[in-house]
Design a protein that fits this description.
The protein has 315 residues and is an alpha+beta fold. The protein has seven helices and 21 strands. It folds into three domains: 3-103, Uridine Diphospho-n-acetylenolpyruvylglucosamine Reductase, domain 2; 104-210, Uridine Diphospho-n-acetylenolpyruvylglucosamine Reductase, domain 3, CATH 3.30.465; 221-302, Uridine Diphospho-n-acetylenolpyruvylglucosamine Reductase, domain 1 (Alpha-Beta Complex). The protein has helices at residues 3-11, 53-56, 122-131, 147-153, 207-216, 238-244, 273-291; strands at residues 21-23, 44-46, 48-52, 64-70, 80-81, 88-90, 97-100, 107-110, 113-117, 156-157, 160-161, 166-171, 174-177, 183-184, 187-188, 194-200, 225-228, 251-252, 255-257, 264-267, 300-302. A five-stranded antiparallel beta sheet has the order 8-9-16-12-13, with helices on one face. Strand 8 and strand 9 form a beta hairpin. It is globular. Residues 3-39 and 310-315 have low confidence and may be disordered.
Length: 315
């Protein structure tokens, strides 16, 4: 439904007209969603949460914006789903934004399948699997964000991917089985909000894999970043290409390609969206001029000037 209609629908959910407007988060500890927040008579509950993306996003860049919180299977059809903003670069000319509420943060075992809400953090999934001796999710411990974001881009570490043991995904219009979804290396054809992933359930949590995946991440920087900025071209590595054209450690303003891993664009302190875009374009230009390879974004650029481009996929 259109964003304006969604707002109208939520604001008139049998709430008294007029009066004070309250945030869904105003009465909740640490900004968590309250299922039934207290309100004064005549108050209107806002479906929006104000988020400062310079603090909330993993790369520490972005404006302060009002984000529509999805707490049912109804949501605006012209807004962009931000997840935990771990693989995003949000610009000043962003579209309307939306985010799943805590209503979709859950893990259940039903009929020998693992049902995971799309707002569930990866760390919570790993803790659950460790406690219940469930296999195949050890790698998620080292992936930022939520299950919904991981499903959107088929996140993973090398050959360990979230789609490897997926059974089906729950969308607004029903379920889609694994075979009904197109997916590949860090990409899927998912173009709508996923509410839940249902996975095959296997016993045997492997503690040795936790250490193995930790070592695989050992060369990644700890500075604020959005993760790997570019997808690895077939038969090569984006980090190697960026380093080969002399951009490892290269800085524009307060953004730089990390000295630790060239495919990580890091924020060295109050880096700007424009700095990040200039650095992105520089790498693409140099790699293409030198090797004839077009680097494809793994980080999604959420700004109307850069969206709907074939090389701007990601979540």
């Amino acid at each position: 439904m259109p964003f304006s209609k969604a707002l109208k629908k939520v604001n008139h959910r049998n709430f008294p007209a007029g009066g004070q407007q309250l945030s869904l988060f105003e009465h909740c500890e640490k900004g968590k969603l309250c299922p039934s927040p207290p309100r004064e008579k005549g108050a209107i509950i806002s479906p929006f949460k104000t988020i400062n993306f310079a603090k909330f996003s993993s790369i520490h860049i972005g404006p302060i914006a009002d984000v529509y919180m999805i707490d049912s299977h109804e949501y605006p059809d012209n807004a962009y789903l931000i997840g935990s903003a771990n693989n995003l670069l949000i610009g000043p000319e962003h579209p309307p934004l939306m985010k799943l509420s805590k209503a979709f943060d859950y893990i259940k075992i039903i009929d020998n399948k693992l049902h995971i809400g799309a707002a569930t953090p990866g760390g919570k999934v790993v803790s659950f699997c460790k406690k219940n001796n469930i296999a195949n999710f050890e790698f998620v411990a080292h992936l930022p964000g939520t299950i919904g974001g991981m499903l959107q881009m088929n996140a993973g570490l090398k050959e360990y991917e979230i789609f490897n043991h997926l059974h089906k995904v729950h969308f607004k219009d029903g379920y889609r089985l694994l075979g009904e979804i197109e997916y590949g290396y860090r990409s899927t054809n998912i173009d709508k909000v996923a509410f839940e992933g249902i996975f095959e359930l296997e016993q045997g949590f492997d503690h040795s894999k936790i250490e193995m995946f930790k070592q695989m991440r050992a060369n990644q920087p700890h500075d604020p970043s959005a993760g790997s900025f570019f997808k690895n071209p077939e038969g090569d590595h984006a980090g190697r290409l960026i380093e080969a054209v002399g951009l490892k450690g290269h800085r524009v303003g307060n953004m730089a390609y990390s000295q630790k891993h060239a495919n990580f664009m890091v924020n060295l302190g109050k880096g700007s969206f424009d700095d990040a875009i200039a650095l992105m374009q520089l790498a693409k230009e140099r790699v293409h001029e030198t090797y004839g390879i077009t680097l494809e974004n793994e980080v999604a650029i959420i700004d109307k000037r850069f969206m709907n481009k074939t090389d701007n996929s990601g979540f």
